[in-house]
Amino acid sequence: MGNRMIKINETDNVAITVNAISAGTHVMDDILANEDIPQGHKIALCDVGEGEPIIRYGVTLGYALHSINKGDWINEHMLELPIPPALDEMEFATNLNTDLPKPPVRTFMGYPNKDGYAGTRNILGIVTTVQCVTGVFNNAVKRIKKELLRKYPNVDDVVAINHAYGCGVAINAPEAKIPIRMLQNMVKHPNFGGETMVISLGCEKLTLEMLLDAEYNTPENVVTFQNEMGHQAIMSKIMEMAENKLKKLNERVRVELPLSQLCIGLQCGGSDAFSGVTANPSAGYASDMLVNAGATVMFSEVTEVRDGVHIIAERCVSEEVGKKLADEMKWYDQYLSNGQVDRSANPTPGNKKGGLSNIVEKAMGSIAKSGSSPIVEVLSPGERPTKKGMIFAATPASDFVCGSCQLSSGVTLQVFMTGRGTPYGLEAAPVIKVCSRNDMKNMWQDLIDVNAGPITTGESTIQEIGTQLFNEIIDVASGRKKSLAEQYEIYNDFTLFNPAPIT
Ligand code: CA
Ligand 1 centroid to 314 CA: how many Å? Predict the structure, then answer.
């Protein structure tokens, strides 16, 4: 079999190699590789003069720093980054697709809640107000798991939401609203069934009044260490409350529910050049089916959307939604600028080794995961949705921070696309991992749930893998199946996004 390459758009002047190419061999029919080219990297399809654009996905990834010959390898050292799209001149609501693929099913088996979305798991969630309680609290969690959990077989797990926030922070700083909102919303997470326990020290800056709705701030839901007579008393109090909560949670049962009660998140990590042609478009196809069935799907990662923001803006249903998109982008531009960096700080050495030369190329692949549905709402970090459908939830791209922000926004399952491979998982909601190429799946059979690699070799299509992923989402959400990260209990820490000062 000859060397294969993937060209995405008619106007592209580069393609990516499906396998590593040796110097002097042909790629497809008429391109002769001038040098060794690694797997997934770009080869020039024609001569490109100095200062001329390098085009992939039909967009300019950057400008050639020196002249390039047809058949040359194009890597991250050969491009100058273009200016990011202007945020004040974007067009909104000009590309609203209503022709979405039909889903094979429109229901799932979930745990209904009094309000909002249904749970995909039945979890005793425990949120702390401050890091000071963690030492005692972690021992209590070990005891709950060991002594109590097995008596309540309908409860899946006990999950502690620990964090470094709560005191020693500028609690009234404008941006403190982000970590506070994240914790407020974790108390209400759909997988916690309205029975979340809250553990407080007593003198911290993040008070119970700030964290909880007034009706939830009661002795049935809160343990405050400074109100108890010593370690043994604190432990007894926590164990007693946990048992009461577990009894109530144990009565929850799964019922058949419309997909409008499902809220899932999407993100990628350890991306490569295949992510944007295999794993992410497959996730996009599955998302379009979910949205067609009434579900809510979030995508995130501001720095990975920034360079494709004008494409996302055209899909926003109104100017109001588009304006919030622009505002979230501006906020992040400023946040990065305060740290004396810009979006070019995003790609990792692994991204570059995987063939992604810069943030424009990474962004174009990243936004493919959002499919083609209209974007009905834009959320600030950790906000909860008020609309159903495709939503842009602004978060950092950092895997665990994005995951934690999406959990706060209420996702009950996350789909995670990877090219280079990461064992990532979340404790409060199952994570399904999708890889972009066959080599990754072969290496990590027991860590990757869905392989989008057969798309690179032409053995499968985006529609086929997308449908497979849709079915996997329904099976895992319905509890018929555990994702691999869940089976091995692979969980990253809950990680707050705190852009505000620490004192
Ligand atoms: Ca990420």
Answer: 24
pTM: 0.95
Please say if the pLDDT value at position 1 is more than 60.
Answer: no
The amino acid at 65: L
Report CA(268)–ligand 1 centroid distance (Å).
5
Report the pLDDT value the prediction gives residue 192, as an integer from 0 to 100: 98
> How many whole angstroms from 400 Cα to the centroid of ligand 1?
8
82 C-alpha vs ligand 1 centroid, how far in Å? Answer: 23
**In sequence order, what E strands does 38-153 have?**
42-44, 53-56, 59-64, 73-74, 79-80, 107-110, 123-128
Region of residue 128 (phi > 0: left; psi between -120 and 50: alpha; otherwise: beta): beta
| Residues forming beta bridges with residue 110, ordered by sequence position | 255
On the question of pLDDT at 92 being above 80, the answer is yes
Distance CA 348, CA 135 (A): 34
Instruction: State the chain's mean pLDDT as an integer.
Output: 96
Ion ligand 1: residues, Cβ under 5 Å: 267, 269, 397, 399, 402
* d(CA 304, ligand 1 centre) in Å: 9
Separation of CA 379 and ligand 1 centre (Å): 17
270 Cα: distance to centroid of ligand 1 (angstroms): 8
Please give the pLDDT value at position 3: 86
| pLDDT at position 26 | 92
Domains of the chain: 5-80 (2.30.130.110), 110-249 (3.40.1400), 265-487 (no CATH)
